[in-house]
Amino acid sequence: MCRTVTKSSKKEEVLINGRVYDLSGFRRKHPGGSIYKFYVDDNNFPDATDAFNNFHRRSDKAKKWLKNWPSRELTAEEKQTKIPESDQETALLDDFHKLEQEFKDEGLFDPSIPHAIWRCAEILIMHVIGIKLMYAGYLVPAFILLGLATGRCGWWMHELGHHATGLGQQTDIWLHEFFYGFGCGMSGAFWRNQHNKHHATPQKLEHDVDLATMPLVAFHSSVVGRQGLIGKLWTRAQAILFPTLSCLLVGLGWQYFLHLRYMQRTKQVREFLWVVLRHIAIWQLFGQYGLSNVVKGYICYVWIGCVYIFTNFSLSHTHLPVTNPDEFLNWVRYSSDHTTNIHPGHFGWVNWWMGYLNFQIEHHLFPAMLQYRFPKVHVRIKALFEKHGIHYDQRTYFGCWSDTLSNLNQIGKQALNADSSKPKRL
């Protein structure tokens, strides 16, 4: 359950597999950056074992590093001051680990070459048909299909970014860079650095980067902060602006500022080349229509893709409660308390539409599992939750849309009527 702690700024010690590792100054060496700090607390040592195991499930290098890194046991004094999990939470985690081992034994974390081929082929086919429709003059269906195709790149790159394919970590990284760089015009390295922070502590203030969305949108009143009149009016209208204009602004801002800046700062040469090749390919295919038409067409293409991907990603978390920065949950509770599943719908259409990420509870429990396998395991996860008295939050697709827009509208009302002040805590 939730534990409130008092932060200290001495050492950056993390508890993994019952041992304490001092990671002070390790941020620059760690591929995931400062994410390990989310599990640092000098007084209570929140257990980072599940986070480490799930983020590094396929990394022999990380496991070897952990084995060789200096560590120590908790002292008698630390054991006394450390807040233990309740018997109920201990039983929950024990059953979760047994179920996790069962999935591993059943091969549910193993690679699937046919699945990888299908995901790549699907994206290629959609782009080819979309380009042919555009050359034939059917612009509306062409833009819709091409926009959806770039969104499909987003779903697939998400799977690759979590190293879920089992094809090898380096292979996943290369494919991730291609599909996100050439397919979406963005940086895979930046995405991995940021998105894993979301998975480490979803819906946690000052930790989950998916909550740091101002000034374009506020998914919780705590992140609104100080606003002038124009900012308040924008936030008041965010339920309309988010699925129409804000998604496009985010996509263009990522492509032409935030991600480019990250690539330059971290010297991601290969990713930059994919982005350059993306724009060369677009000009070679459509340059005959003139610069002005290419720019307008490209903005339309990006807009459809961004609306498709960003709005669907928002359905599984944004309308749920948040956790304060000085509180800790265990791995299962972050998934159960701050994640919503979306029903597959008739004939499972939502599964395809959302790239199986409508099973967000399962995805947050097992981010390195191929997403198409979530329907196979969700019944057993639901049974685990029911056994331990945990609500398994599953809603309909359009019900989640309603919840998300209602939440945005409510926050907009609060922002318009609020006095400018520091962000509130729960």
What does this structure look like?
This protein has 426 residues and is mainly alpha-helical. It has two domains: 3-84, Roll (Flavocytochrome B2, Chain A, domain 1), CATH 3.10.120.10; 87-426, no CATH class. 58% of the residues lie in helices and 4% in strands. The chain is built from 17 helices and seven strands. Strands 2-3-4 form a three-stranded antiparallel β-sheet. A two-stranded antiparallel ribbon has the order 1-5. A hairpin with a 2-residue loop joins strand 2 and strand 3. The longest helix has 29 residues, at 238-266. The radius of gyration is 22 Å and the shape is globular. Residues 1-9 and 420-426 have low confidence and may be disordered.
